[in-house]
Design brief:
CATH class: Alpha Beta
Largest sheet: 8 strands, parallel, barrel
Oligomer: single chain
CATH architecture: Alpha-Beta Barrel
CATH topology: TIM Barrel
Shape: globular
Radius of gyration: 21 Å
Strand order of the largest sheet: 1-2-3-6-7-8-11-12
Helix content: 40-55%
Number of helices: 13
Order of helices and strands: HHEHEHEEEHHEHEHHEEEHEHEHH
Length: 436
């Protein structure tokens, strides 16, 4: 899954282990550059290839004009936002309760075409963004067209939040890539390079340009876990820079800064650290408890986040493992002692928090998606990653938040503050220039 299990390689290969939430390597489907020509004749009755070519050209021109209009509306929204981004909950645009809840949901879907159900939610202001997996991507042109379609939907007059959607994927490097292309090196290979700081910055720049070129604006990377033993869960596929927390700190910060300069938001994961998990301790598949001392968690697992926060990391993804030494037996993303106490209060993080997959096996004892969503929001999670490739899962999460907001289970001031952080993030990540 997005945060924990290894991702599929775009060419169809994938690492041998498969978690319950691990996504398929790819699905059959042909990338299309546009809709098929309507059969045989144009409005004037002319038939044949010339008429079809003319119709196709008009569609391309119309699409380019629409893309430019979307970009202009986004630019205008950003200029307005620059005069006073909604840092305070009171500054939020007028929204219904349902729209407010929707601003905390990241959706997912199967196949190459966004479902109509998802587009309706986006147009109605009930979505913060979408995560993409290998099965959603046939080519760079195809996913860029999808991204443009989603961003056009977000500019609907029915949507009170006039900011770009958060369109995200996992592009860590090495075998953990959804898109073909950079970064080619795994984090471990970066850490072992002759000039690792340069390699980390190159990877961050490459990841940012790659995603932005495909129409995406958030990368669920870098992994900031400090692996403890060779071949363990996080090292099995080279997903950690080093066994030295200082090295992970330095290289993670280089990646973050280089990627975010390009305009793609970086996500440090998985707080407060999965580097001690054994190979079988896969939170995508089952509950995991890591019996570490407070000192070990803070001086090893959490250390890279100090550098990441100093580098301005825009998102932090929480681990679904449990850390009893920190005062809670719940998974980290459901524990206010870890989200609020460790990350926000102890380390001073003020950016956006995001869950790992809401369908992970680690949450098997925590009920439905709706119930898990309330628990995560209570703990202090801003965004809920509904990554089971079902739009319905995102709707279930939204309904859970909506119920908690209305019945008072969720503090309204804290809820609105979370939405405000998400909107600020949406205003500050890149929006690719439209292409015909």
């Amino acid at each position: 899954m997005a945060g924990c299990a290894t991702s599929a390689v775009p060419d169809g290969a994938r690492p041998p282990s498969a978690g319950a939430q691990q996504r398929p390597a790819g699905r059959a489907g042909v990338a299309r550059d546009g809709a098929d020509a309507v059969g045989g004749a144009n409005a004037s009755g002319v038939t044949g290839s010339a008429a079809q070519a003319g119709a196709a050209a008009r569609r391309v021109a119309d699409q380019a004009a629409e893309n430019l209009a979307v970009a202009a509306r986004v630019a205008a929204a950003r200029r307005a936002a620059a005069a006073g981004l909604p840092h305070r909950a009171a500054a939020l645009p007028a929204m219904s309760d349902r729209q407010l809840a929707g601003q905390r949901i990241i959706y997912s879907y199967q196949g190459l075409t966004p479902p109509a159900q998802l587009l309706r939610r986006i147009r109605n202001g009930q979505a913060a963004g979408v995560i993409f997996f290998a099965g959603n991507i046939a080519s760079r042109a195809q996913i860029r067209q999808v991204a443009a379609e989603l961003q056009r939907a977000a500019m609907s007059k029915r949507n009170p939040v006039r900011q770009p959607l958060l369109l995200m994927t996992d592009q860590e490097g090495g075998v953990v890539r959804r898109l073909p292309g950079a970064p080619f090196r795994s984090e471990k290979q970066v850490g072992e390079a002759a000039h690792p700081a340069t390699a980390a910055a190159t990877a961050g720049t490459g990841a940012g340009k790659n995603l932005l070129g495909a129409g995406l604006n958030v990368n669920l990377a870098p992994v900031l876990d400090v692996y403890r033993t060779a071949g363990n869960f996080i090292d099995e596929f080279g997903r950690s820079y080093s066994m030295d927390p200082n090295v992970v700190s330095a290289l993670g910060a280089e990646f973050i800064k280089a990627q975010q300069v390009v305009g793609v938001g970086a996500t440090g994961k998985h707080f407060p650290g999965l580097g001690s998990a054994r190979r079988a301790q896969n939170t995508d598949e089952r509950p995991v408890t890591l019996h570490l001392s407070v000192n070990n968690i803070r001086t090893v697992g959490e250390l890279p986040y100090k550098a990441a926060i100093a580098a301005g990391v825009k998102l932090v993804m929480m681990s679904w493992a449990a850390y009893p030494a920190l005062g809670s037996r719940r998974p980290a993303g459901l524990s206010s002692k870890i989200v609020q106490g460790e990350l926000r209060q102890r380390l001073g993080y003020t950016g956006v928090t995001i869950t790992d997959s809401m369908g992970a096996g680690a949450l098997v004892h925590y009920g439905s998606t709706a119930h898990r969503s309330v628990l995560a929001a209570t703990a202090g999670m801003d965004l809920l990653l509904c990554a089971s490739e079902r739009v319905g899962q995102g709707i279930e999460g939204l309904d859970g938040l909506l119920g908690g907001y209305r019945d008072g289970t969720l503090d309204k001031s804290a809820f609105r503050a979370a939405v405000a952080r998400v909107i600020v993030l949406r205003a500050t990540v890149g929006f690719p220039a439209p292409q015909p």
